[in-house]
C-alpha cells in the first residue's frame, strides 16, 4: 500500500522532512495490524515464510562456489583460483568461498542447497535489462511491468515487504506489498506529535493513519544508523552502483536489514514474503578483496535473518539470486566482466540441502557459452516457481500463464518433504 505524496498538510518541522513523513505513513501498513490482522489470514495452500535476496551487480558464481574438481579450473581462473585462504570443501568437486563460513555450516547441517550454472532467460549483458527481466518474470526485458511476486500474492491472503527505499519491480502488481526503510532522523517529539494529532483530528483517514504511524516501533539509533548505510542513502541499492559505505557498514547495514526482515516475518500475522537487496557485486576490478567483503556481508546478514526468525526458520525458505554471472576468465584488472550463468542459494530449515544441484557444463573452451562464460543449464525461474508454489500455494497453471510465463516446470526435490 502506498500513501499519496499529494497531501497538502504534511508538516515540515523539527527535522522531519516530507519524505520521512511519507515513509512513515507507507511503513505504517506493516504495523497497521489492528485492522489488517483481523482480516488477514493465510490462504489455502499457503505455508511458512519466504525471503528473496537480490544481489545487484552480478555475483561471480565461480568465485562464490569454486569448482576445483573441474580439470580446467586452475588454468581458466588463473590468479582468481588462488586466495589467502583455502575454499571450504563441499562435495569434493565444488567448494565455497572462505567468507561464507555461516553458509558452509548450513550446508553441513543440510539447510543449504547450492544451485550452480543457473541463469534467467536473459543472454545479453546489461544490468538494467537483466534485472528488469529477473524481477518482472517475463521472457524478455520490459515485456511485463509488474513483478512475479506481486502477481503471485493472493489478494488479502498474504503480504510482502521489501526492505528497500523503493518498491522493487518484483513486488509490484499487488496492493498487499509495501516497503520499509530505516532513517537516521530522530522521531518527532511529543509536542509535535500532539499538534499533528490535533491537525488531523477532523479528518478520519489522516487521523487513523497518524495513529498507525505513532504505533510503529522505533528501532534503536545504532540499528537505524547501520541500516541506513545500506538502505537510506539509495546509492548502494542502485542496480549498477558500488556502495559508498565502508565495508564494515555494508556488513552491519545488511545484517540490520535482515534482522528487521526476520522480525517482520516472525510477527504472528506478519507478511509471508520479504525482499532484501545487497548491491556492490559488479567486480570488474580487484575482485578478490571486494568479494571477500561482499560475501562476508551476505553471510552475516543471512545468519542474522535466521536468528531473528527463531522457530519460523523451520519452514522458511531463502532464495539468493543475481541478474547474471560473470566471465569465467579474469580480465586484465584483476576482476571479471559481465557473463551468463552463475549460482543461486536455496536455504531454510526444511530445504533438502547439503548438495550442489548442477548439470555441470564444464569449463573447457568448447564448453563455455560464447567461449567466455559458464554455460547455463538450469533456468532460475524453476526455483522461483517452486518457491511460490510451496509458500504461497500458487498453482502450476497460474505460474505458467500469469506469474512466470514461458518458464519451465517447478524444480523438484528442493525440500525434504514433498
TrEMBL record:
It comes from the Bacteria. InterPro entries: DUF1501 (IPR010869), TAT_signal (IPR006311). Residues 399-418 are annotated as: Disordered. Coiled coil: none annotated. Pfam families: DUF1501. This is DUF1501 domain-containing protein.
Amino acid at each position: 500500500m502506498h500513501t499519496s505524496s499529494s497531501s497538502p498538510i504534511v508538516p515540515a518541522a523539527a527535522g522531519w522532512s516530507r519524505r520521512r513523513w511519507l515513509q512513515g505513513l507507507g511503513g505504517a501498513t506493516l504495523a497497521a495490524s489492528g485492522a489488517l490482522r483481523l482480516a488477514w489470514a493465510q490462504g489455502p495452500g499457503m505455508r511458512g515464510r519466504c525471503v528473496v535476496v537480490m544481489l545487484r551487480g552480478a555475483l561471480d558464481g565461480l568465485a562464490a562456489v569454486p569448482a576445483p574438481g573441474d580439470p580446467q579450473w586452475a588454468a581458466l581462473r588463473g590468479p582468481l583460483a588462488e586466495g589467502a585462504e583455502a575454499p571450504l570443501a563441499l562435495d569434493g568437486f565444488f567448494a565455497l568461498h572462505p567468507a561464507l563460513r555461516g553458509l558452509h555450516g548450513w550446508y553441513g547441517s543440510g539447510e543449504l542447497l547450492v544451485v550452480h550454472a543457473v541463469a534467467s532467460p536473459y543472454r545479453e549483458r546489461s544490468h538494467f535489462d537483466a534485472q528488469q527481466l529477473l524481477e518482472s518474470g517475463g521472457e524478455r526485458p520490459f515485456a511485463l511491468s509488474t513483478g512475479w511476486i506481486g502477481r503471485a500474492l493472493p489478494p488479502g491472503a498474504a503480504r510482502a515487504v521489501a526492505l528497500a527505499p523503493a518498491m522493487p519491480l518484483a513486488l509490484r502488481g499487488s496492493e498487499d506489498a509495501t516497503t520499509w526503510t530505516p532513517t537516521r532522523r530522530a522521531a518527532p517529539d511529543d509536542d509535535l506529535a500532539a499538534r499533528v494529532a490535533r491537525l488531523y483530528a477532523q479528518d478520519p483517514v489522516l487521523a487513523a493513519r497518524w495513529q498507525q504511524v505513532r504505533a510503529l516501533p522505533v528501532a534503536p539509533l545504532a540499528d537505524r544508523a547501520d541500516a541506513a548505510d545500506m538502505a537510506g542513502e539509495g546509492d548502494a541499492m542502485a542496480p549498477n552502483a558500488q556502495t559508498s559505505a565502508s565495508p564494515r557498514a555494508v556488513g552491519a547495514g545488511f545484517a540490520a536489514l535482515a534482522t528487521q526482515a526476520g522480525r517482520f516475518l516472525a510477527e504472528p500475522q506478519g507478511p509471508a514474503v520479504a525482499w532484501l537487496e545487497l548491491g556492490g557485486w559488479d567486480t570488474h576490478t580487484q575482485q578478490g578483496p571486494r568479494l571477500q567483503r561482499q560475501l562476508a556481508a551476505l553471510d552475516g546478514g543471512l545468519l542474522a535473518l535466521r536468528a531473528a526468525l527463531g522457530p519460523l526458520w523451520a519452514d522458511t525458505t531463502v532464495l539468493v539470486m543475481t541478474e547474471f554471472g560473470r566471465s569465467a576468465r579474469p580480465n586484465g584488472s584483476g576482476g571479471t566482466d559481465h557473463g551468463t550463468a552463475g549460482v543461486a542459494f536455496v536455504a531454510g530449515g526444511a530445504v533438502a540441502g547439503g548438495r550442489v544441484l548442477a548439470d555441470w557444463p564444464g569449463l573447457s573452451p568448447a564448453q563455455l557459452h560464447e567461449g567466455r562464460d559458464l554455460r547455463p543449464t538450469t533456468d532460475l525461474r524453476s526455483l522461483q516457481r517452486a518457491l511460490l508454489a510451496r509458500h504461497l500455494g500458487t498453482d502450476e497453471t497460474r505460474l505458467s500463464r500469469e506469474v512466470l510465463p514461458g518458464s519451465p516446470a517447478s524444480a523438484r526435490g528442493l525440500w525434504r518433504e514433498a
